[in-house]
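Example record for the data management plan.
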Amino acid sequence: MTSYVSELERGEGFSETTVHPGSLADLAASEPANGVYLVARSWQGGKVLELDAHFDRLTRSARGLGHDIEVPRQQLRAQLEAQRRASGWLDIRFRITAILDTPIWWRVSIEEARPVPDALLQNGVRCLTVHRSARARPEVKSTAWLHARECLQTGDDGGDPVYEHLLTDDIGRILEGSSANFYAVVGDTLMTAGQGVLAGIARRIVLTVARPLMPVQLTPPRLTELGPDDEAFISSATRGVVPVRRIDDHLLGPPGLATRRIMAAYDAWLAAHLEPLVEASDCSPST
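Corresponding structural encoding:
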């Protein structure tokens, strides 16, 4: 996989885009530790979902680290669109990083957006729990966390690939994933942590579409509470809703009706709320 990176320093305009071998995940190791970031993607050839909400959370993350920042929203949107067009990709997955130096500078990194494989959506994914791994500042989406999560166990035991690591608190409740929010459907009730987790953009959409469908309980489930007929899934802004089939050695039911209904409602909500990345008259980055 190939990534494209550009940087903005001191409001002077973005640097020339450079090409890097590897994915955004590979490039995470080169991100300065004193930053905050967002990860999102485009859809349908350059449309985005809730990008201003991502920018708002970026601002809150910086404030949580003691920095008041002004996000150059239109400049970042224009740069993303310029990089998307130059790459030749229909849609992109991107990371925008604010490095909290004096002055603040910005980095925009993109890769080709690829859908979650149909086999995973049909059959579910495997996750591993990381015990007593709750984040101290989950509301802050910091580059320090990008580096810290690299220390999580790989789970490379010869079984199915591990799709996501799940963080638990001191009493074994599953709070969230290392890069996603986590949910379980126990009986007819959707359970997910109400605090101590990142307030993901996708999480807000999931809760919005789920409440008309089933009871919602903002309580993190324990793995021991999940039976073979219960369901689980994760959500993120770049992947949407992804069913979970196995957690550690605990086999859950196949993606069932509740998960399927939430997946369909999420996809419909997404399609109805997409917006252009840039207006037609503003397709080039400002300098």
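Summary line stored alongside the record: The helical segments are 24-27, 51-64, 73-87, 118-123, 143-148, 201-210, 257-273.
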